[in-house]
């Protein structure tokens, strides 16, 4: 299998988060080992700012506000799973509110986005439970506490 993710950083504060790419990749690799199927190709994760995510959210979801993570599944014909964007300021606020490291929050959200690219949803209780269990197990394997025990919810 090729590298499941590629990282692009266009917002300088992300560069101060030690181990960001390695930790996000590790969480995703641990989840892949538990997944029944994974889309071929390399997903792209963009570490960006609230302004960029707000613009993407407005353009593609008609929601003129930033959010923590956006996932854009690519059509099967594109040959890669799709793109993910994480908003620095929102992720930092959520990490601080939950009393957790920004690294842990970012790893969770990168994994969350990757699962969306691979067809996982949280539209109903059963789907949400399956997605949360996969996230929790993968994160636990790399030493990150259950994100669903903190006060910050998706």
Keyphrases for this structure?
single chain, alpha/beta, Collagenase (Catalytic Domain), four-stranded mixed β-sheet
Could you explain how this protein is built, in words?
This protein is an alpha/beta fold. The chain has a single domain, classed as 3-Layer(aba) Sandwich (Collagenase (Catalytic Domain)). Helix content is 45%, strand content 14%. It contains five helices and four strands; from the N terminus they run βαβαββααα. It has a four-stranded mixed beta sheet with strand order 1-2-4-3, with helices on both faces. A hairpin with an 8-residue loop joins strand 3 and strand 4. It is globular and about 35 Å long. It starts with a strand and ends in a 13-residue tail after the last helix. The mean pLDDT is 95. It is found in: Cytoplasm. GO terms for molecular function: metalloendopeptidase activity; RNA endonuclease activity; zinc ion binding. Keywords: Cytoplasm, Endonuclease, Hydrolase, Metal-binding, Nuclease, Ribosome biogenesis, rRNA processing, Zinc. Its main location: cytoplasm. Single strand-specific metallo-endoribonuclease involved in late-stage 70S ribosome quality control and in maturation of the 3' terminus of the 16S rRNA.
